[in-house]
């Protein structure tokens, strides 16, 4: 095996040929790492959101991308998208703090409306039970608490698929 360092078409690659794949390049054929280490973006095959570390004797697959965090612009962009996705806006932090206190209150209020009349031996128990259910349904702000992170994630994903990179926090 000689080191010619020449570029060849994929159709011309023979078994036991050593190929150099630079940072940011697509891996042209299935193979095994024989020298060096890197991170490979395998999301086209596995759906994973993080690059997979590869060392000597690791298997690499056709169509995946060789990432090198120091050299590759695509790796830096992926890292920025992941950071933006994981960062919390002021609105989301407020909703999380609000939910920390509001959610237990929503559980205890209807329980109190149902249990206190039972403890006082009120005659119309079904009325108080239904009233407790009305309080529970009326006070439940699950849509508000769940909608903020979902809307943020959807906006970031839509922007990324449209080719727009959002750095930092999305909402102020």
UniProtKB/TrEMBL annotation:
The chain crosses the membrane at residues 101-122, 128-156. It comes from the Eukaryota. Residues 4-69 form the P-type ATPase A domain. Coiled coil: none annotated. Pfam families: E1-E2_ATPase. One of its GO terms (molecular function) is ATP binding. GO terms for cellular component: membrane. Keywords: Membrane, Transmembrane, Transmembrane helix. SUPFAM superfamilies: Calcium ATPase, transduction domain A. Gene3D superfamilies: Calcium-transporting ATPase, cytoplasmic transduction domain A (2.70.150.10). NCBIfam families: ATPase_P-type. Belongs to the cation transport ATPase (P-type) (TC 3.A.3) family. Type IB subfamily. This is P-type ATPase A domain-containing protein. It comes from Populus trichocarpa.
């Amino acid at each position: 095996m000689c080191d010619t360092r020449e570029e060849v078409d994929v159709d011309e690659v023979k078994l036991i040929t050593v190929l150099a794949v630079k940072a940011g390049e697509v891996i042209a054929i299935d193979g095994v790492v024989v020298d060096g280490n890197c991170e490979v973006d395998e999301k086209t095959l596995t759906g994973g959101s993080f690059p997979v570390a590869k060392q000597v004797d690791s298997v690499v697959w056709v169509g995946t991308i060789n990432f090198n965090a120091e050299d590759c612009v695509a790796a830096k962009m992926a890292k920025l998208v992941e950071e933006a996705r994981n960062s919390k806006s002021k609105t989301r932090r407020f909703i999380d703090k609000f939910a920390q206190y509001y959610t237990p209150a929503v559980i205890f209020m209807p329980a109190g409306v149902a249990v206190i009349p039972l403890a006082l031996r009120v005659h119309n128990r079904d009325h108080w039970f239904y009233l407790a259910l009305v309080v529970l349904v009326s006070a439940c702000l699950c849509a508000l608490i769940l909608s903020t992170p979902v809307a943020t994630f959807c906006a970031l994903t839509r922007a990324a698929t449209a080719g727009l990179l959002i750095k930092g926090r999305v909402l102020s």
